[in-house]
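Next comes this protein:
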Amino acid sequence: MVTREPAGPEGRGGRWLLVVEVLFVLVAVAGLALWSVPGALLAGGVLGVLACERASADRRAAGVRAGGEAAGGERQ
C-alpha cells in the first residue's frame, strides 16, 4: 500500500510563502524590465538557475532524510 508522506514541517504555510516569493520576484523583474530589458533578462536567468538549484537541493535533502540515497547518483 502506498501512503502519502506529510509535506514536511512547513505544511500548507510553505506553499503560500513560495507563492509570495514567486510573485515578488516576478514584480521585481518586471520593474527592472521597464528600465532595462537586457538587465531583466539577465536577472531572470540568474534567478531561474538559483530557483532550480534550490528545488534540487530540497529534493536531495528530502531523499537523505527519508533514508534513501542522495539524488544525482551520489554515493555515501
